[in-house]
TrEMBL record:
SUPFAM superfamilies: Adenine nucleotide alpha hydrolases-like, PheT/TilS domain. It catalyses: cytidine(34) in tRNA(Ile2) + L-lysine + ATP = lysidine(34) in tRNA(Ile2) + AMP + diphosphate + H(+). GO terms for molecular function: ATP binding; tRNA(Ile)-lysidine synthase activity. This is tRNA(Ile)-lysidine synthase. It is an enzyme of class 6 (ligase). GO terms for cellular component: cytoplasm. ATP binds at S26, G27, G28, L29, D30, S31. Keywords: ATP-binding, Cytoplasm, Ligase, Nucleotide-binding, tRNA processing. It is found in: Cytoplasm. The N-terminal region contains the highly conserved SGGXDS motif, predicted to be a P-loop motif involved in ATP binding. Its EC number is 6.3.4.19. Ligates lysine onto the cytidine present at position 34 of the AUA codon-specific tRNA(Ile) that contains the anticodon CAU, in an ATP-dependent manner. Cytidine is converted to lysidine, thus changing the amino acid specificity of the tRNA from methionine to isoleucine.
Amino acid sequence: MLKSFSDTIDGPLRCLKQGKLLLAISGGLDSVVLAWLCHELKLNFALAHCNFNLRDEESNTDEDFVINLAEDLDVEVFIQNFDTLSYAQSNGRSIQMAARELRYDWLKELAGQLEFDYILTAHHADDNLETFLINFTRGTGLNGLTGIPTINDNIVRPLLSFPRAQIQEYARDHNIDWREDSSNATRKYLRNKFRHDIVPILKEINPNLLDSFQNTLEHLKDTADIVEESLNAVAKRAIVNIDDHGVTYKISEFKKVNNPKAYLFEMFKNFGFTEWNDVVDLLDAESGKYVKSNSHRLIKHRAHLILTDLQTYTNEPIIINESDASIETPLGILKLETAKSYLQADLHTIYVDKHRLKFPLMLRPWQEGDIFQPLGMTGKKKVSKYLKDEKTSLVEKENTWVLTSDNEIIWIVGKRADERFKITSKTKDILKITLKG
């Protein structure tokens, strides 16, 4: 096994040879063997042990074992104690999930503080098979069936290609002691049910199960790469705009593919949507329809879909006094300054006759029934009609505010100024109003 491990370090994981390594160790068989293998290859590593305080004196004995092992290996060791039960209860986590979160959060924090290049964990081939079966049983997509990654950011799993039996054989041949975790024997945890009941039957059916599984994983990873490449190509063609309101996609690009639902699922699965038939129906829905998750909305707007966050914006009116030079708003910074002359206005800047204003001004979201006189026009128009004529999306409408003086609209901010406040030949004082995002 040492030769195979050395080949792994010299080959696909050669990044570990010159790195400063933090080895996560429980005291169990797998992590102890990994520590001895790293020691044999004279890698630069330290040990990191989590005491989750879940097994009374047994947890403390594990901690003592790891401290003694560090002395035998002549390496530094870091110990962290956790109140795992309290964390699980206060965060609504299972014990296993709580321990996992605490472990990885601490390892990443420790590695960052002490400038370790990589975190090593002792996951092996049997762990990978169990994870595959658990994901398969619970239901998952293609990525959930590609197994545990050997390298994930700075987390590396050097034993992932080695079976548990080979690791155990190496330990016995080299008289390596380890700690047995009594919780590994219970069927209370789903992983243990697979480990003790399901996997042995599968190995009885196919004695070369792990080899077959590794081959299957390679095929699945290759397929996942092809899917990712195709998905990225469609996304590149579909995305037409990214701004503060969200991401805009061309519907026509989804309709060109053979299975739009599959592409929609892969593209939007990380945004909390669950009603995928409703998402597909948006492609042919009328403008303004949307599907909502706990965190996002996907909105149909004419020939596009718009993905936007469910952000909570303040709808409270903002009072602007004559003495205010600038004021922070949900839209950005609104600046007011006296100007000696005026240039051509744009979407973010207007020039108004200051003597027409009655302070304080008010900035507020537009409302149904709002009326203004668009700059350059003689008649008045409902703001709702103006937004419709401008083909404004639902997202934009929700983020449209108006600046008013004595209940008269001065500016549909970022869109259109009002005729009644424009600069004329009789204007004596010019006020420049600018929105900076």
